[in-house]
Design brief:
It contains seven helices and 17 strands. By secondary structure, it is of the alpha/beta class. The protein starts with 6 loop residues before the first strand and ends with a strand.
Length: about 375
């Protein structure tokens, strides 16, 4: 039977979550390891354009083996929970539909915000755990003055994962532990060595778990073929920002905002993808200067440090994971939509990506760019 104050650790098979489990165990907590089985890594292997080997990706079978081995090493119970059906429904299918609609999705945010934490906390309750701990690089703190749980950027800025966690609710944050928020990656690896973890030197996974090599075009083909569905015809026109037709393209899902190569037209100066018009099946191209925007709109907004945005607020905004947060003013323009106006125009604001708002180290909230 789980003891009082049991902590369920989300174990991905990587060094970060493994170190978290070992740390909490060493501190005397009752710890249970949980791994979410989200995607059958062999499912599309060998199909046209897809590799035979599926090693080296997040959430692979090798990762499950590594997590189980760590649990045995530190002496904690360990369970694998299968959520493949929900992952396909809530992450993979929306990923496919977004690309086919001319948007550029970020499945890691969908997975963290709408599946992993939600389901981990549900399973944790079922097994008698009070809290869930993960290996994310971020910090959670309770602010007495506002009475709200805050999500903050970590000490190791190079590993900052707050961009992917903007959708966490107050209830989820209140039951979440992020022990690595005040540590650097080298410090975590050193701890892992100290705990005798065999995967202390294991490299970080860089790929989307279900898209090998980051080649989403081949993934779309293979996935739809496996489902018995044909790839929709999204071919159409290449047009300039003034509406002049200068060529044709073979599919809107093959392009993203900011793209320069592969446009299939030659002009006297470089052209970039400025906009994808999914309904019209048009790719709008223009100069690099036309790629910059002063504003963006974000919908399906989740606020963390505030209960509501009642007046304009000065923040910095991230529009991609690796984007340097840019100074802006945000204001509420409808019940579920925020307008951000940047001090300086930003390059390649991309529909489908997230816009995350920061007040210093504090995550104010975020939403999806429209």
């Amino acid at each position: 039977m789980p003891q009082a104050n049991t902590i369920a650790v989300a174990m991905s098979g990587g060094v970060d979550s493994s170190t978290v489990a070992a740390m909490l165990r060493a501190e005397g907590h009752s710890v249970i390891g949980l791994t979410m089985q989200l995607w059958n890594q062999r499912r599309l292997a060998g199909r046209p354009g897809m590799p035979e080997s599926v090693q080296g990706r997040c959430c692979s079978l090798d990762d499950v083996y590594d997590a189980r081995r760590v649990a045995e090493t530190i002496g904690i119970p360990y369970y694998v929970v299968n959520h493949e059906d929900r992952f396909e429904r809530d992450v993979v299918r929306p990923f496919v539909q977004e690309y086919l609609s001319g948007r550029t999705p970020i499945p890691c945010s969908l997975c963290n915000n709408h599946l992993k934490f939600d389901q981990l906390l549900t399973v944790a309750r079922q097994i008698g755990a009070d809290k869930v701990a993960t290996g994310h690089y971020a910090r959670v703190e309770f602010e007495e003055e506002s009475g709200r749980w805050l999500l903050k950027r970590p000490t190791d800025r190079a590993k900052d994962q707050t961009y992917f966690l903007f959708g966490l609710t107050q209830e989820q944050l209140s039951r979440t532990l992020l022990p690595l928020g005040g540590m650097t990656k080298p410090e975590v690896r050193e701890l892992a060595r100290g705990y005798g973890l065999a995967l202390a030197e294991k490299p970080d996974s860089q790929e989307i778990c279900f898209v090998p090599g980051g080649d989403y075009k081949n993934f779309l083909d293979a996935y739809l073929e496996e489902k018995g569905e044909s790839l929709p015809d999204t071919a159409g026109e290449l047009v300039t920002t003034t509406g002049e037709v200068i060529g044709e393209h073979s599919g809107i899902h093959k392009f993203t905002v900011g793209q320069r190569k592969g446009l299939g037209v030659a002009t006297g100066s470089p052209l970039y993808v400025i906009q994808l018009k999914g309904d019209a099946r048009q790719i709008v191209v223009g100069s690099q200067d036309e790629l910059y925007s002063r504003t963006l709109r974000a919908h399906r907004v989740n606020l963390i440090s505030l209960d509501d945005l009642r007046q304009p607020m000065r923040v910095s905004v991230k529009i991609r994971h690796k984007h340097q947060p840019a100074a802006a003013t945000i204001e509420k323009i409808s019940e579920d939509e925020i307008l951000a106006t940047f001090d300086e125009p930003q390059r390649a604001v991309t529909p489908g990506q997230a816009a995350v708002f920061y007040d210093g180290d504090i995550v104010v909230g975020g939403g999806w760019i429209t």
